[in-house]
Amino acid sequence: MNDLKHCSRCGVVISNINTADYYRHIRIKYCDVCREQVRREQAAVRVHNLRQRRRQKNKLLDERLELLEEENKLLRERVAALREYR
After folding, report:
1. Is the pLDDT assigned to residue 2 strictly greater than 90?
2. CA nearest to 40, candidates 9, 78, 4, 67
3. 3, 28, 62, 78: most buried, per Cβ within 10 A?
4. How does pLDDT run across 7-37, given as a tens digit for each residue?
5. What are the E-state strand segments in 1-86?
6. Largest CA distance in the chain
7. Using CA atoms in the order 10, 16, 19, 23, what is the torsion angle rounded to 10 degrees?
8. φ, ψ for residue 23, nearest 5 deg
């Protein structure tokens, strides 16, 4: 087993199995500085994906709204024509 654990990004030694908790040793992946950078990057990706999904959803809602408005207009015209016919 590897006694020393290095940061995946910068290579700094971040854990020693002989002085650290075993479960922390196997879980830790980044040093403190890189961990913050990775969190920021992951958050930026999540926010970007959320905004893309929201844009797509709003676009679909706008298309639906336009279709419904057009349908309502046609129905109003039909109702008006039926009223004139009677």
Report:
1. no
2. 9
3. 28
4. 999 999 999 888 878 888 889 999 999 999 9
5. 4-6, 13-16
6. 94
7. 90
8. -70, -35
The torsion angle over the Cα atoms of residues 21, 39, 37 and 55, rounded to 10 degrees, is: 170
**Mean pLDDT of the residues in the chain:** 93
Q: Which two tokens stand for residue 3?
A: 């006694």
Angle at 77 between CA 59 and CA 60, to 5 degrees: 10
End-to-end CA distance of the chain: 91
Q: Which residues contact residue 83 at a Cβ distance below 8 angstroms, ignoring those fewer than 6 apart? A: none
Average pLDDT rounded to a whole number, residues 35-49: 97
Q: What is the DSSP letter of 74?
A: H
Tokens for 26, please give them: 């196997």
